## 1
Amino acid sequence: MDRCRFSSAAVASLFLSAGWLLPVSVAGECSKGIDIAPGDDYSDWPDLFRLTDPYPTDPTASNRDEDAGPVDPSVLLSAGVVYKHFDPTGFDYPNRTKQIPWSPPVNGTNDEDLQVFREQKDYQYADIVVVSGYAEKFYIEHIHAAGDEVRYVIDGTGYFDIRDVNDEWVRMHARAGDFVEFPSGIEHRFAVDDNLYIQAMRLYPGDGEPDWSSVSRSEVHGNNTSRNEYVDKYLCGVDPDLEDHHDDPDDHHDDPDDHSDPDDHSDPDDDHSDHNHSHDDETTGNTTSSSLAVLSSATMFVVSAIVGIVLF
């Protein structure tokens, strides 16, 4: 009895002094993303696919990785992206022009389903913007810290690149009728496609002034509340931004404080431009891991030896 009591105490002590051992890891295991109900109808979703290059030379080209095949919408749903489809055909919207702010025209032909959805979500503010060319600063990877990004494509086409829970790009080829909500803190970027034109509605909740401010990925550094909340909810509290991104050109040549006017290509009221500002438009690690693995194996050998004494 004394021998058994001593051995059990030794085992407990060893696990307490090495809390990172296997039992603790198993107990704290986390699955990234949120659970998605099976059997949903994804037929209205736009085309989703992987990129041949995470930082394509020409973002307006498809850059589709044919070998990877299509991406299931559940990948983005798991990352917090919300999608709906509204058909804008036959309703009164500005003809290929912007309108800031925008309200459904009195006595006009308006989309009642869209209006009901806006009321449910408290999207009191709306405007309509136009992007008529590629602007590099729109393609800087960024987050929105002030709230979700909500966009409804009325006309034209373009590409939204969104990070999934494994920090890999998913490209969405958005077209008229696509209504998307990107949760605050998710990293994404935008480019028109080779048609060089898109018209979209931006929506913002509440009756206050909309905040379209954004923060580039290279500026997050783990100190952004919205990003941290997103990481906790969807990424098991592990932020890839805090790791080294040797292949990320945004860390090398993009200027997040570039406020140059993109009027020659795009609407000045789009939101993918000024980062961390309100804008008018828009090898050591491997060694450490190996050392921990060796230490863990050695410690587990000791644990097994002690347990062997107890059992046999």
## 2
Amino acid sequence: MAVSKCTRLSGPLIQELLDSVDNFLFDCDGVIWRGEQAIPGAPEVTNLLKKNGKRVFFVTNNSTKTREMYAEKMAKLGFLAKTEEVFGTAYCSAVYLKHIAKLDGKVYLIGGNALIKELQKLGIQTVGSGPDPVFGGQSDWANVPLDPEVKAVVVGFDEHFSYMKLSKALKYLDNPDCLFVGTNTDSRLPLEGGRAVPGTGCLVRAVETAAQRKAQIIGKPSHFMFDCVVSEYGIDPARTVMVGDRLDTDILLGFNCGLKTVLTLTGVSNLDEATAYQESHCPERTGMVPDYYVETIADLLPALQG
């Protein structure tokens, strides 16, 4: 498929892409749904892809839901998705700690219930979740008691993030043998109407700054997210396409892993950004230029229905 980058995916090109791949990776928010509403036509697209023999997986940086929670949401919105087809950062973080890092101990967790559940499924105990308000003064913060069984600090989305949690994370990470994992580096979570709230990346960067250490990042654009899918399904990168709405996570993941990439314009990034990256000729930015773009993944429907 000798096509220039950032090409509108339409007409015969859609069928050419479908013929060239066996596996589809979809981001979720901004791609197949917005909030609690499915993107019009998205369930039909993913369901028809499966009917036509394609393997479909869902990869999301969101650490606030378990695989089961995602599968339940998808079922309600009309997607035919199995739990084991969902790869979120809560699940992938647990896989990393259990099977790659071979963690032997507890996790000090800055994160929520989904992370607790995914870690517990693999036999990993956590401490630290929930509110942890500040008490006392600087001497108290510097001498806060630690759990000697903690061997890793994991940072995900945590609405209860506090100065006390930051202090405890710093103390644990003063030990160079303590592992440091961040679920993702998304700095902002977009909301309807152009609004946004701080994302997990803000918390990860705060802990990195305090601890003067870099976290092992699990989510997109880290290669590990794709490695999780490969380890369970043995898919071929050359026969796989990543479909997402963010240039700096979804599209860059595809570039990092040697996948074909499709940007959908129903979410965060826009065509002007992609074009600017392409014209910059900057190596750090060209990896965020998609092979193709669509207005919505529903653009694939005519080819699938035909």
## 3
Amino acid sequence: MTSSFSSAEYESLCGLVWPAGQLPLTLDLDLENWRFQGFQFDPQSKVGLKQAKNGPCGVLAAVQAALLGTIIFVQGLWKDPLAPPAPDVLEGALISSLCAVLSQTRVDRSSSVQVVLKKSAQEPLTMADFDSFVIHNVPQNSLFAFMDRHKAQFQGEGGVVLFLYSLVLTRGVKQVKEDMVYDASTLVVGNWGLCSQALVNLCIIGQALPGVDDDSMLKFREDIEIGLLTYEEVENMTFGSGYSLLTDSLKHPKFPIWIVHGGDHYTTLFGFDSENISKSGTPKKSVTGGASNMCVNDCGFHGNPATFGYCSACYKKVGEKKQKQDDTWDGKCKGGCDFFWVCRKDGILLCLL
């Protein structure tokens, strides 16, 4: 079953996806970094997806992470880091990964996937023309075969835009807006057309949640395969509130694969050894054979030396509790030294020294 956008539907989609103030008529000129980007392998790295210009990095990094998880851990096709799989194997894994990322955005797991393609596969992508797209309603059990037949559209110029539109329509424009209820922004932001965190979350967990902290990601604490690391975590711990910006399950995912955020760019970090990661996403034992570094509050999640042995959620709760008890407290150790405190189980505000 196929359908097309109406003018109003396409304007609504563009208003949710593209930076505020962007009109469909100006998309082709203003967002060339998206218009010409497809899912193509870099000839040097063999396995890495090539990015031409800044902007679509968040989507590419998420699909790259899903691809690595597929070929290393799910299908077990890549075991020797120096010997990547053959091109046809990688191409099949790419299609599988695109299908997996799309499928998880469905609100109803029994529903079909909405796949957006160009009406004319041979013509260049025209983002300004709503009538240049066709929407395919594809059942889940036929998705891989459908995507494989039309893989050239996703690998070629504009393939990332087609995939982005497919993500939003499969989730539903209304539902994506509800996911982003506390965020008035768009999925692509700024003058340079950069990926928002909501867009990256849509790719890695299937929901366009704007945050990555414990409150935002509570229901996903034990169900995240791909992790996330960001420099903002370090900055916030050092110069900000002192509370973790990232839920612990993003730091310790099921697979040793992380999307890495460095300010205005997303990339992918991964490893081949998942033996030290338990099913809950937390390390079993240290590499040196020592005891597991669990939260000192015995909540079952991994502790962090930067938060005095607490996981991010417990550290936040302990800090809020102590500040409510003493509004005048400056955070310094009650023992009189210049270091900051850590709350022991007896409730005494002493530093680790």
